[in-house]
Amino acid sequence: MRYRLTFVAGLALGYVLGTRAGRERYEKLKKSAREFSQNPAVRNTVESATQQGRDVAGKAFHSVSEKVGDRVPDSVTDRVRSLRERGQGGGEDDWGTTNT
Length: 100
Description:
Layout: H1 2-38, H2 40-68, H3 74-87
């Protein structure tokens, strides 16, 4: 019984100390991730990659639609059209960033 009590006490102490250290480490990682995501170079790279992805998707759609013809479902054509229009807006995107 003494060993169980010692084990439970050690477990409780480890939990309390671990959660305190874990929370501090979590907050530190969260702060680092926020700083990284707010870096202008990172934001511009993400926006460039997004725009290139939209361009490639549009080209792929045109290639496929030429071969497939009218057999492309309307839901696909509507989605591609909305993505293309969103990419050409020149304003802010969903995250409040601009392509500068």
